[in-house]
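Researcher: Structure for this, please.
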Amino acid sequence: MTADQLKGVDIYDPSDAKIAEIADVVIGSDNAVTGIVTDVGGFLGLGEHRVSLSPDQVTVYKNADNDLRAYVSMTKDELKALPAYEMPNP
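Model: Predicted structure, token format:
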């Protein structure tokens, strides 16, 4: 699976409710995934709260229709309560 394939994948909570989507994947200097940047809330790109999760907090599955889905053990409110993601300066 590539980082490009993960961008835009919907994130679901344990009750199977859509709560966010993957906005980006952070790759470290060792070419390993170090973070999953998510957009929580908002509508049509307005009012979204962007947070970063560690790779072990997100599980990605391909369903019977070959659609990718990501799952977290948090609720939408718990994701929104996380600190906002700040893009590092190069």
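Researcher: Any notable elements?
Model: The mean pLDDT is 88. The longest helix spans residues 76-80.
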